[in-house]
Write a structure and sequence with these properties.
Blueprint (H helix, E strand, L loop, with lengths): L7 E4 L5 E7 L19 E4 H4 L3 H17 L3 E5 L4 E5 L11 E5 L3 H5 L1 H8 L1 H6 L2 H6 L29 H11 L8 H7 L3 H8 L12 H4 L3 E4 L6 H12 L5 E7 L5 H11 L3 H6 E7 L7 H16 L9 H7 L1 H9 L10 H16 L1 H14 L3 E7 L6 H18 L2 E6 L1 H9 L9 E5 L4 H16 L2 H8 L5 H19 L4 H10 L3 H13 L5 H5 L8 H9 L29 H16 L4 E2 H12 L2 H14 L2 E3 L12 E4 L1 H8 L5 H8 L7 H20 L5 H32 L8 H21 L4
Parallel strand pairs: 2-4, 7-12, 8-11, 8-12, 9-10, 10-11
Antiparallel strand pairs: 1-2, 3-6, 4-5, 5-6, 13-15, 14-15
Length: about 775
């Protein structure tokens, strides 16, 4: 172990150590391997070869330890005449197997000054990653990356909503979120059933349906029609109540955000079947805000059951009523704790009070007695445990066992709502084997129908001054009411348009997740990028793709940040070692091609992984990209999980993935937005993108007082997109030569053609714009 301090520590532009130099006294020569010929430039020698010399070995080990202590990747040893520069660490590799760069004599500086300068100058080391390029095992491994966003001080800048936000926010929160079951008029007018989904999309083979997957059918799960009566699911509930079936557990499955909670509330509260209304008491225990803690979950469920089942408020009533409820224990107590006491004595009452208090704390017992009391009134209980899918698999399974505990204890019907992948994971682990459960699957309605109904409802109410005041919760001038109604009407027409960019993008992004589609629309509704004065100034406004992307991708931010958006950066470098801007596209391209041949079948992950491993040597990049594509919903796994796992056998492209691959990646606004968030291999390009982004930001601030700045800003954005595509073209050309890519395996030509065509349309639109 070396001790002491390094002789020289050279810092890069970031202020962090870039190179640690260990200097030996002049005249102490290293025994370097003799080159095949007298070289006038530096040479590469394996570190393990250099360490056959005792002096070099000791110096290398000493310098390496200094580097590790300081967190520096590169070290150097020199005696003033001979120089050895080496890499001290590389993941998964013995450092002795790495190569070092050796300058055997000072004459090399005179004969090869340019190459030495390009590797060791301050600028090249700090900004171009020259040492990494020099000492990597291959020319393209471990390349340094640069992010334009790191050079933009205002990158995290949030922007204010549009000027109509005081009116639009109440509309967004009340009518474009979860439907309140107490608002019966809105529920009746805007609830979209699954039958409409089937009718609207039966012939649309390009869309992947959120249907019952084969592995669910193998567990006896049936498809549920999302109609007013609850379909087969509602029939099952009626049958359970009529036949007084005990210890019954039913599972309602559905994808994330398809509306399981709304479906249950509409079925059980808003328009319940007659038999449920007459003969059942329904309790919904919503776990959405309950932390992931097993004892807390258990107590929360049972405590809420006690409160909900106490229909006649007996627990808050007289002791006489409580004793009647707990009559079985009271009879035992009279033979034991109360034996020998006069019922009218203070001692009898004191002991009985204590017993009643302890019985009330036994929540399972109390619930059991309350349900039996309901039986005397010819009523059964239905207990729903909702939003269990927010938890991890262990907690999901725990909630499932609680449902059976409730069904067994209360001899009632218990319903659990959960996502398909949770059921699948629990099934293969054997958790469900001991139970005889019935499963019902709920499909997502088409987002366009959801929006059309809600927009139609809001527009109708905005047309009436009294109704408008009620839904907005405030007085509104006639001018503003007309503007809002015109805006809502414009959105409604757009969703009715089969060629709508807005409808297509939201439908694709949501991928069956209606909750997400509504969230994206809420952000768009109040975003500053939604130019309401411009939209409402013309009779029939038609949304262009570049007018849709910004308010959806970054509704309240100036710059795009993937971690803050529901839309992924398809060009992002994911792996730190070997990575490509085109890895995600290669996965989507392969799956898209396979879907044309095989329909919606899942494609084996192993074959895709093998290609990435054998051809591109990017195993980690493949895994991270598949994980990202799953999380954002661009691909589906056969297990329906939304993260990469080793047990995934197959994957397939989704409608969202196809939309991104076919349309979004070539859109000017998308390219321009993601460019500053993308890690770049070229420091010059990164610096240029950062500089143009700063210019754009200044032009945006100035455009509110100088309209000419608006056109300048559009030109800056176009230049930024052009610079980014030039960079991608160069990267693809390099990879094309390295991996022998065919024309069909390249993507930038399509992107370039689309960008050039759209640029002219964007310029024309900007020149006509009259509103900020």
């Amino acid at each position: 172990m070396a001790s002491g301090y390094a002789d020289y520590v050279l810092n890069g532009a970031s202020g962090q150590p870039a190179l640690v130099i260990e200097a030996k006294r002049e005249g102490k020569y290293f025994d370097l391997p003799k080159p095949a010929r007298d070289s006038e430039s530096g040479t590469f020698v394996a570190v393990k070869t250099l360490m056959t010399d005792r002096a070099i070995s000791a110096a290398l080990i000493q310098a390496r330890q200094y580097c590790l202590d300081l967190g520096c990747v590169y070290g150097c040893i020199t005696n003033g005449f001979e120089w050895i520069i080496f890499r001290v660490f590389e993941a998964g590799v013995d450092w002795k197997a790495l190569r070092a760069y050796v300058i055997p004599k000072l004459d090399v500086f005179a004969h090869s000054f340019t190459s030495i300068y390009n590797s060791f100058s301050y600028r090249c080391v700090s900004y171009d990653g020259s040492l990494n390029a020099l000492l990597s095992r291959s020319p393209y491994e471990n390349r340094e990356t640069y992010k334009p966003s790191y050079e933009i001080p205002a990158y995290a800048r949030a922007i204010q909503p549009n000027k109509y936000v005081q009116f639009l926010r109440p509309i967004a929160e009340r009518f474009f979120g979860v439907i309140d079951e107490s608002y019966v008029e809105f529920m009746d007018a805007c609830y979209v059933s699954d039958k409409e989904y089937e009718a609207a999309f039966k012939s649309a083979q390009s869309l992947l349906t959120d249907a019952l997957t084969p592995y669910l059918e193998s567990y006896g799960i049936r498809q549920t029609e999302n109609d007013d009566g609850g379909g087969t699911f509602g029939n099952r509930l009626e049958k359970s109540v009529l036949e007084r079936r005990t210890k019954d557990v039913v599972v309602l499955f559905g994808g994330k955000g398809v509306g399981k909670s709304t479906f249950l509330r509409k079925l059980l509260f808003v328009r319940p079947p007659q038999i449920l209304k007459k003969s059942a008491v329904t309790v919904i225990v919503d776990l959405l805000k309950v932390p992931e803690d097993k004892p807390l979950i258990h107590s929360e469920i049972w405590n809420r059951l006690v409160e909900a089942l106490d229909q006649d408020f007996i627990l808050k009533g007289s002791r006489e009523k409580l004793v009647e409820l707990f009559s079985d224990r009271y009879e035992v107590a009279k033979q034991q704790d109360l034996y020998g006491f006069d019922p009218s004595s203070p001692e009898f009452n004191r002991i009985l009070n204590g017993l009643v208090a302890s019985w009330k704390k036994d929540v399972k017992y109390v619930c059991e007695k309350l349900v039996k009391r309901l039986h005397t009134q010819h009523k059964g209980a239905i207990v729903v445990i909702d939003n269990t899918d927010q938890y991890g698999k262990n907690f999901q399974e725990y909630c499932f066992t609680i449902a059976h505990e409730i069904a067994d204890t209360l001899e009632c019907l218990a319903i659990v709502s959960m996502r398909e992948e949770r059921f699948y994971a629990s099934s293969i682990r054997g958790v469900l084997d001991a139970y005889q459960n019935s499963g019902f699957h709920l499909s997502a309605p088409p987002p366009k129908n959801v929006f059309i109904k809600r927009l139609e409802f809001v527009g109708k109410h905005l047309g009436n001054e009294l109704s408008a005041g009620k839904i907005l919760g405030q007085e509104v001038s006639r001018e503003n009411r007309v503007t809002l109604r015109t805006l809502i009407g414009s959105f409604e027409r757009e969703f009715r348009n089969p060629d709508s960019h807005l409808s297509s993008f939201l439908t694709a992004c949501a991928h069956g997740n209606i909750r997400l589609a509504l969230e994206l629309f809420r952000g768009m509704l109040v975003s500053r990028y939604t130019n309401i004065d411009e939209i409402t100034a013309v009779r029939e406004w038609k949304w262009q793709i570049h007018q849709v992307l910004k308010p959806v991708m970054i509704p309240n931010r100036f710059f795009y940040d993937e971690s803050q958006s529901h839309v992924p950066n398809i060009f992002q470098l994911r792996s730190k070692q070997r990575s490509s801007h085109f890895s995600a596209l290669r996965i989507l391209a392969q799956l898209s091609k396979l879907s044309e041949l095989q329909g919606t079948a899942f494609h084996p992950v192993s074959s895709l992984y093998t290609e990435f491993s054998n051809r591109f040597h990017m195993e980690e990049d493949f895994r991270i990209n598949v994980d990202t594509l799953l999380k954002y919903g661009l691909i589906d796994a056969n297990t329906r999980v939304d993260e990469y796992r080793e047990d995934i056998d197959g994957i397939r492209i989704t409608n969202y993935g196809r939309y991104v691959f076919d349309d979004l990646l070539s859109a000017f606004t998308y390219i321009e937005l993601v460019s500053t968030d993308t890690a770049i291999f070229d420091s010059r390009v990164s610096a240029e993108l950062a500089a143009m982004s700063l210019d754009e930001y200044r032009q945006w601030e100035g455009s509110w007082t100088d309209p000419k700045k608006r056109l300048e800003r559009v030109e800056t954005r176009l230049k930024k997109a052009d610079e980014f595509v030039h960079y991608l073209e160069a990267e693809e050309a390099r990879e094309g030569e390295l991996y022998q890519l065919t024309p069909n395996e390249r993507f930038t030509m399509k992107i370039r053609i689309s960008l050039d065509d759209e640029s002219e349309a964007v310029r024309r639109s900007a020149s006509r714009q009259q509103y900020k």
